[in-house]
Every structure is written in C-alpha cells, then in structure tokens.
Amino acid sequence: MRVTVLVENTVGRTLPIGGEHGLSLWVEYGGHKLLFDTGQRGVVVPNAAILGVDLRQAEAIVLSHGHYDHTGGLRRVCEHIGRSLPVYAHPDLFSAHRVSSPTDKYVGFPFVREAIEDLGAVFTWVAEPLELYPGLWLSGEVPRQTAFEKGDPRMYVYLGGERIPDPLADDLSIYIAAGDGLVILLGCAHAGLVNIVEHARSVTGISKVAAVLGGTHLGPADAAQLDASISFLEKLDLKLMAANHCTGQRVAARLAAVFGERFRFAAAGEVLEI
Ligand SMILES: [Fe+2]
Ligand SMILES: [Fe+2]
Questions:
Q1: Which domains does the chain have, with CATH numbers?
Q2: Which ligand is nearest to the CA of 171?
Q3: How far is the CA of 188 from the centre of ligand 1 (A)?
Q4: For residues 237 and 232, what is the distance between their CA atoms, to the nearest angstrom?
Q5: Cα(9) to centroid of ligand 1, in Å?
Q6: Strand partners, 124
Q7: Cα-to-centroid distance, 62 and ligand 1 (Å)
Q8: I need a labelling partner for 35 at 20 to 30 A (CA). Which of 14, 52, 66, 271 fits?
C-alpha cells in the first residue's frame, strides 16, 4: 500500500507544491484509490497534479471530521473530479464545531451541504465500523475509553444555548490490514490516539500495529496525556511513526527522538510505501 501526503501544514520536498494548515492523504491499497480529507483551501488539486496523483481516479472521499482544515478543499476536489462519487463521513460531520483560541470562531464544515451535493458528492454516513474494501475499515465513531484522553479544551459546541466541550463524535480514522500488521491513518485523532489504536485492534481483530500516520493531536495535549500516549506507542513495536499536522514540532521532535529511524515527518509531498 502507498500513502501520498497531498496537503500538510508544511512542504517536505523540493517541489512547487503548497502547504496550508490542514491534511489530505491519497491512499492506494489493494487496487483501490481514495482521498482521505481535502485540506483547507483547495491546494490539494494542484498539489496532486504535481505529485502525479490523478484525483479523478478516486473511488471515494473519506472525511475524518468536519473541521474546515480537513473539509475546506472538498468543493475544489468535487469540481475537479466532475462526477458523482461517495463521500464517507460520520453523521455529525456538519456539527457546529467551534474553538475558543486563538480567536473564538466557527471551525466546522465550510459549505452548504446542498452546494457540495450539486457537485456530485453523495454523503454516506458511517457511525459504526465499516469494512469499505477487504482489509480497509472506516472506524465510525470511536469509543472514548482512556481516562487521560480528555479532548482539546479549546474546542466547544453550543447545545441548547449552552456551551459544552465538543464531543467531536465525527472523528473517524482508517484502519488497513497490511502484511506487517495494521496501518492506522488519522485525521486529527480527536477521539484520542490510544482510543483509536485500541478500537482498530478490536474492530479488525489484528493486534499488531505496524504504522501510525497522520494528525495525532498530541501537540495541544497536556503533559499527562502526552507521556501516557508516547509510552503506549513505544510498546507497539511500530515499523513507522509518521506523525504530522496537529502533532506540532515540539511533539514531533520528541517522537523523532523516541522512534529514531522509524519516525518520519509526513509533510506534503512525502510518499510512504508500507
Ligand atoms: Fe486538523
Ligand atoms: Fe480537527
């Protein structure tokens, strides 16, 4: 299987591609091709062309959650593909996600649903684990089990006029059975990295985890969560730890120190063969 990082906060290769705060991964597995997230502002379309990825070959788009930095490129992508195709996501995709910092604002899905459907998107809701292709699962909603993964305190929603912590039930990851074990693709890991890994094991029945790739959301985590998460990861015998996006540079540096050669910073342009 191969994962090409189409959009990330940074650019990692000497190519004329763009970086933007956001994430988009091109996933090729078992003859299937799908787009996981779309970045923030549509740079995914020219980046894909420069990286030799034909977005029109996508069988489906999977959205990890409604945040604008993962869904904001969707309109450009749908316009570019120019035909009907399924868009898999959790039914809370359009939840009115907000953050309190650095400025208080709406950070949810940035389009009117119908406008995207008019471009060919067929929203297909995934609340439970779904084996989309043999050996490739969409997580659906990930149960929150650990005590130390409390969610980002800056994120909130209004419920009945009351401000509550954003449950981000729409956070969805991809679990892939590779030869060496599971490959786990994260959007932002708002459900908690450890919760996601344990859910992947129980959904797939595969306990060996070979690779973790994507946004870990360990950047904003408190010290207790960060320490517990890293000691959990160390016990997994990973072949590849390819963190990016909401991992942040401080935590990425720590992961690089822990995992050595097995760590890759998955900036835009990186191609990971697993
Ligand atoms: Fe994100
Ligand atoms: Fe997010």
A1: 2-273 (3.60.15.10)
A2: 2
A3: 5
A4: 10
A5: 10
A6: 88
A7: 14
A8: 14
